[in-house]
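Support request from a user on the community tier.

User writes: "When I paste my structure tokens into the form, the page sometimes reloads and wipes my input. The last time it worked, I copied everything first. Here is what I submitted, just in case something in the input itself triggers the reload:"
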């Protein structure tokens, strides 16, 4: 376990977001990235995308923003040291952003992202 405080974890998520190329950011639409300690229903969940992926949007006016949530305690518990935590946070951020674009878990796994 590699427990870090909320401020440090927020920095790690920011570093993960910084890895996303500007071209990808420019295509993202109506999505917010949040940090929570844990998912009450699935405490081992590292991240979660909730919303309507871009490829499935037809009539979308007035919709609340999609949510990407990154779970601090689950990621800290999952990782043995700081370097592993840095890497896993970045992988989780990219993984959940990919879901915003409609990329499935199966495709991500096939490409080596999870």
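"...and here is what came back when it finally went through:"
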């Amino acid at each position: 376990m590699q427990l870090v405080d909320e401020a440090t974890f927020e920095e790690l998520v920011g570093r993960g977001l910084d890895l996303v190329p500007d071209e990808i950011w420019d295509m993202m639409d109506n999505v917010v990235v949040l940090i929570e300690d844990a998912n009450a229903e699935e405490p081992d969940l590292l991240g979660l995308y909730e919303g309507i992926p871009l490829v499935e949007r037809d009539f979308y006016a007035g919709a609340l923003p999609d949510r990407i949530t990154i779970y601090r305690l689950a990621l800290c518990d999952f990782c043995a040291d700081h370097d592993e935590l840095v890497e896993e946070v970045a992988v989780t951020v990219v993984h959940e952003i990919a879901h915003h674009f409609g990329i499935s878990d199966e495709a991500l796994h096939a490409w080596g992202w999870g």
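Agent notes: The reload is a front-end session timeout and is unrelated to the input. The two ends are 19 Å apart (CA to CA). The helical segments are 6-18, 22-27, 72-78, 82-100, 105-110. Escalated to web team.
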